[in-house]
Amino acid sequence: MNRYLQASRIRLQQQVSTWQEAVQLAGNLLAADECATDAYVEAMVSMVESLGPYIVVAPGIALAHARPEDGALKEGISLVVLQTPVCFGNPDNDPVSIVLGIAATDSDKHLQLMSAIAESFQEKGFAESLITAESTDKVLEVK
Predict the structure, then answer these.
(1) Alpha-carbon gap, residue 134 to 4, rounded angstroms
(2) Contact indicator for 7, 137 with CB cutoff of 8 Å
(3) Residue 80: which residues within 8 A CB-CB, separation 6 or more?
(4) CATH number, domain at 117?
(5) Containing domain of residue 74, as a range?
(6) Is residue 24, in this structure, part of any structural domain at all?
(7) Number of domains in the chain
(8) Are strands 76-86 and 96-103 parallel, antiparallel or unpaired?
(9) Is residue 7 assigned to a domain?
(10) Is 142 contained in some domain?
(11) Of 5, 56, 123, 140, which has the most beta carbons under 10 Å away?
């Protein structure tokens, strides 16, 4: 996962009030690093509003994304760790502490990113290491 994640796209101990703010923050990090457009960020929120909280894929973890044609410019992952978890409306996996923003330019790239993320989270203690990391450098050291 770290090959798609850069320090400029990591925010730790962030305070938000809603899941929308959390997704926008993750998306804005992608947009600021020219992985996606502002329209893509809006589409990330709209996807959850229209399809429900399907992006909450595991306890405490959300994978926020939109379709490539919504404004993905290049592959990238952003990471937002929330100081106080927020609920997306997923009864099995709420509340969420880790929001990953994903930008992929096509379905093959999307699968590559998802595979890299899944591989990282299979490592025992990976999620907890992200939640307790005190710096972006510490996040990038987590394998």
Answers:
(1) 20
(2) yes
(3) 11, 14, 22, 25, 26, 29, 98, 99, 100, 101
(4) 3.40.930.10
(5) 2-134
(6) yes
(7) 1
(8) antiparallel
(9) yes
(10) no
(11) 56
143, pLDDT greater than 70: no
What contacts 69, CB < 8 A, 6 or more positions away?
A: none
User: What are the backbone angles phi and psi of residue 27, rounded to the nearest 5°?
Assistant: -70, -40
User: Which active-site residues does the annotation give?
Assistant: 65
| This prediction's pTM | 0.95
Strands 5-14 and 76-86: parallel
Distance between CA atoms of residues 12 and 84, nearest Å: 11
Per residue in 3-56, pLDDT (tens digit) is 899 999 999 999 999 999 999 999 999 999 999 999 999 999 999 999 999 999
Q: Which two tokens stand for residue 49?
A: 């509003």
**Rounded CA gap, 14 and 136, in Å?**
13
At 101, is the secondary structure helix, strand, or coil? strand
In the DSSP assignment, the letter for residue 17 is S
Cα four-point dihedral sign 54, 46, 105, 138: negative
> Residue 139 falls within a domain, yes or no?
no
